[in-house]
Amino acid sequence: MNPVAPRDTLTPAEAAALRARIIARVARDRFAPPTTMTALHFIASHLDRAAEAFERNAPRNAAEALNDAREIAQLHPDTRFPSNFTDYVEAPVTGVALPMLAPFNPVNPALAQREADLRHRLTLVHAQLAQATSESATDAWLPSALTYQRDLMRLAGEVRVDNARPCNQRQPEPAPAEVAEPHLKCPKCGSTNVRPSVREWATCQNCRHGDLWAAFKACDCWGYDCPALNG
Fold first, then answer.
1. Of the residues 145, 168, 191, which one is the last residue of a structural domain?
2. What is the chain's percent helix, strand, coil content, to nearest 5?
3. Angstrom distance (rounded) from CA 64 to CA 6
């Protein structure tokens, strides 16, 4: 008996069913601790249900199965499926954008470079997957996208640990320096709005009292390089 040849052109429902089955296969093939493997097998079972629903042209049943798979992935991040991974399945039907994790903002330059490289590769794979209309092309590109998503989720965990190190904590902004009290103060009204005029004479701009600088003196700089004056 000859095997069934891969289909060259898929309808949106056929493409969604195929993607659900591919992701189910990836979930079953992953290596993980027993608890995580149990979650992965449940995800795969729900994806199989979704595929069957798409093949029966039952979109409501497909949506329910995908929602169940998505909830398990959200409860078990160790499965390394992004919380909206079912968008890969729904994209041919709804046109939803393919999943991309939010930026990690690593402090470590090496981790930042790894993140940039993985995101670039995933973007290239997404471009190919978006154009894939055949069974063989989808089967080639979708597992690669899921691999990069898994690697990004692992990297996200590394970044959280590294960013939490004391040496990588952002230092608080220093408090603004206190400006010294202006070096001249009016002995009559107490205003610091005093301006020197000729020679050693100064005048209060508030009450217009005038006198020698010494009478207005409030600090020992005598107006030379005083931070209050220069500020």
1. 168
2. 55, 5, 40
3. 28
Q: Could you tell me how far CA 31 lies from the centroid of its own chain?
A: 27
Count of beta carbons in the 10 Å neighbourhood of residue 3:
5
Measure the CA–CA gap between 84 and 168, rounded to whole angstroms: 30
Tokens standing for residue 121: 């590769």
| Nearest-angstrom CA–CA distance, 144 and 40 | 18
- Tell me how many domains the chain contains: 2
Task: Give per-residue pLDDT as tens, 177-204.
Answer: 444 445 677 888 878 777 766 666 777 8
Q: 163, 106 in Cβ contact below 8 A?
A: yes
* Same domain membership, residue 94 and residue 149: yes
> Is the predicted pLDDT of residue 21 greater than 90, yes or no?
yes
Same domain, 203 and 158: no
Range of the domain at 39: 12-168
Q: Cα torsion for 34, 32, 129, 103, to the nearest 10°?
A: 110
C-beta pairs of 191-200 under 8 Å, 24+ apart in sequence: 192/218, 196/223
Backbone dihedral angles phi then psi of residue 96, each to the nearest 5 degrees: -65, 150
Same domain, 200 and 94: no
Instruction: At 30, give phi and psi (nearest 5°).
Output: -75, 150
217: helix, strand or coil: strand
pLDDT tens digits along 66-116: 999 999 999 999 999 999 999 999 999 999 999 999 999 999 999 999 999
Specify if 2 maps to a domain. Answer: no
Q: Which of 133, 168, 203 is the last residue of a domain?
A: 168
Question: Do residues 138 and 183 both lie within one domain?
Answer: no
CA–CA separation, 70 and 81 (whole Å)? 9
